[in-house]
């Protein structure tokens, strides 16, 4: 299969209507999209990504009409929708019967968000159905934040990549749901800071670990480059790997190493999040043998950065 990159929304819409899988831009990361209600097309997503069927997908909607087709919306979610949509917040809601079990991995809930990227909003407006879309990368690997990243990883496996430029957020959406006690639960930190959510809905609790993921992006080992990643005290890690070519991921300060990538010299966590996956990808394709990263401040988007680094380093 030949893969092309372009900015033709109509072409992407045509392919999706034909049951194809297309890579699309969002403000968070690039997604691998299919018609939510076309089970054969959704199955292609799992095949292309080599994604396990027990890991559910996020459904992307354009408006309230599409939201109501896929989910039941409790009153408690209305303020979140009004405040943060369109944007990088995914809500886990009771699903409608029309949503295939393949999309939700058999769960009775569905993860839904309304993307803010103008090109993807134009694409959704050209379609009659919402789009199921995980990140457009091989399962478990670093998420793509440019069309070229998608081409590098999935070229030849999908027909079209809709190029919307570099993602402005750079990490996946925050995923929020409610537990059996009616409490708001954080399934995944992401592009909306927890502090912003709590200012609106009160305390947000950590999700309990379960054998089967309760929402997308919850697997312990995920978002990982192929080279080993270690997170912690950078000077100590540099001593540990003395004599090896070490690539360092730092928030604000340079470290004396084979290579050091500073995500935001100004100390801007949003900018650091925007650059994280691109830097992980660069170090993974460099001559570095080991990647080490410092822990970021556990606030704002620093939580999402720490989450992705922890999962990238899982099992090391």
Task: Write up this protein.
The protein has 316 residues and is of the alpha/beta class. It folds into 2 domains: 4-85 and 96-172, DHBP synthase, CATH 3.90.870.10; 229-313, 3-Layer(aba) Sandwich (Rossmann fold), CATH 3.40.50.11030. Helices cover 31% and strands 19% of the residues. It is built from 11 helices and 15 strands. It has an 11-stranded mixed sheet, with helices on both faces. A 4-stranded parallel sheet has the order 12-15-13-14, sandwiched between helices. The longest helix is centred in the C-terminal third of the chain and has 16 residues, at 269-284. The chain starts with a strand and ends with a helix. The mean pLDDT is 95.
Q: Give the H and E element order.
A: EHEEHEHHEHEHEHEEEHEEHEEHEH
Task: Compute the average pLDDT.
Answer: 95
CATH architecture of the largest domain: Alpha-Beta Complex
> What is the name of the CATH topology of the largest domain?
DHBP synthase
CATH superfamily of the largest domain: DHBP synthase
Task: Please work out how many helical segments DSSP would assign.
Answer: 11
Q: Measured on Cα atoms, how large is the radius of gyration? A: 19 Å
Helix content: 25-40%
- The backbone outline, from C-alpha atoms, is globular
Label the structural class: alpha/beta
Q: How many beta-strand runs?
A: 15
Number of domains: 2
User: Largest sheet at a glance?
Assistant: 11 strands, mixed
Separation of termini? 36 Å
The proportion of strand residues reads 15-25%
- Placed side by side, the strands forming the largest sheet appear as 1-8-2-3-7-4-6-5-9-10-11
- Highest-level CATH class of the largest domain: Alpha Beta
List segments where confidence is low: pLDDT < 50 over at least 5 consecutive residues: none
């Amino acid at each position: 299969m030949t893969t092309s990159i372009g900015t033709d929304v109509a072409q992407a819409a045509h392919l999706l209507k034909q049951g194809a899988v297309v890579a699309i831009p969002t403000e968070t990361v690039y997604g691998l999209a299919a018609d939510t209600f076309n089970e054969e097309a959704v199955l292609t997503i799992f095949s292309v990504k080599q994604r396990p069927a027990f890991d559910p997908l996020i459904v992307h909607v354009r408006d309230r009409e599409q939201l109501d087709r896929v989910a039941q919306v409790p009153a408690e979610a209305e303020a979140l929708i009004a405040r943060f949509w369109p944007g990088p917040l995914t809500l886990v809601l009771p699903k409608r019967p029309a949503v295939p079990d393949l999309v939700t991995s058999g769960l009775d809930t569905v993860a839904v968000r309304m993307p803010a990227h103008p090109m993807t909003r134009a694409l959704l407006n050209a379609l009659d159905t919402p789009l199921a879309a995980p990140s457009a990368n091989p399962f478990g690997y670093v998420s793509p934040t440019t069309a070229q990243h998608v081409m590098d990883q999935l070229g030849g496996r999908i027909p079209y990549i809709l190029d919307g430029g570099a993602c402005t957020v750079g990490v996946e959406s925050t995923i929020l749901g409610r537990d059996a006690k009616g409490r708001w639960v954080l399934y995944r930190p992401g592009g909306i800071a927890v502090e912003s959510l709590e200012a609106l809905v009160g305390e947000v609790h950590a999700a309990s670990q379960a054998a089967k993921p309760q929402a997308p992006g919850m697997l312990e080992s995920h978002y990982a480059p192929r080279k080993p990643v270690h997170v912690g005290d950078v000077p100590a890690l540099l001593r540990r790997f003395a004599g090896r070519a070490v690539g360092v991921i730092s928030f604000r300060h340079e470290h004396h190493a084979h290579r050091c990538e500073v995500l935001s010299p100004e100390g801007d966590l949003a900018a650091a999040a925007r650059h994280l996956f691109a830097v992980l990808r660069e170090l993974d394709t460099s001559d570095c043998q080991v990647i080490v990263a410092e822990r970021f401040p556990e606030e704002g988007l620093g939580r999402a950065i720490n989450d992705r680094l922890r999962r990238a380093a899982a099992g090391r």
